[in-house]
Write a structure and sequence with these properties.
alpha+beta; single chain; 194 residues; Aminopeptidase
């Protein structure tokens, strides 16, 4: 049974999107990003430019959660992380040299994974994450998430993500973040084994 806070809406389906498909709907995605991350509205414009640039990165993969009428209710994307990329270089400094050399080699950066707030708590984020990991050829998946987001941590822990750095401050955001990593393939420990 759904709680009174969750609208009675259709179960969205997950689609694989090309970089072009994502770029065509990036403004919708950034609306979700702003709501989910609780950023000011003006953040979306700059982030849309960055997201479009990300579609050109090696190994780019995107998944979209769409309801029956095609409305975007969630999305996730990432790519191969490499030296010289903003996130890669900052995260490498946050880790020990040994951890950085191990975890950042042949790894997939999960750059964004967001679900519209009114659709959260229904397994959409879990399904997006599982779809992005399924068949992913990288050694590991890495991400950063606000330290104070227990629902995100619960999701990532269920897939085996471990702490690589905590309380990290990225430029432009006053909140501390955690950097997490998991070896691929991911295993969803919430799925009952028969």
């Amino acid at each position: 049974m759904r709680s009174a806070q969750q609208p009675d809406i259709c179960d969205p389906h997950i689609q694989r999107w090309t970089g072009g498909q994502f770029a065509a709907r990036v403004d919708e995605a950034m609306d979700i990003y702003i709501l989910a991350m609780q950023y000011p509205d003006y953040t979306g414009t700059q982030r849309a430019v960055t997201a479009r640039r990300h579609t050109k990165n090696d190994g780019f993969e995107c998944r979209a959660a769409l309801d029956d009428d095609g409305t975007l209710v969630g999305f996730g994307y990432g790519y191969t992380t490499k030296p010289g990329q903003w996130w890669h270089d900052l995260v490498r400094k946050a880790m020990t040299p040994e951890a950085g050399a191990d975890w950042l080699r042949e790894s997939f950066e999960l750059s964004e994974l967001h679900v519209r707030p009114e659709h959260q708590g229904r397994g959409i984020g879990r399904r997006l994450l599982a779809s992005l990991a399924d068949g992913n050829p990288h050694r590991a998946m890495l991400l950063s998430t606000p330290d104070a987001d227990p629902r995100a941590f619960q999701l990532y822990r269920r897939f085996g993500f471990v702490d690589l750095a905590r309380h990290y401050l990225f430029p432009g955001d006053a909140r501390p973040f955690a950097v997490l990593g998991a070896r691929l393939p991911l295993v969803d420990t919430s799925v009952e084994r028969g």
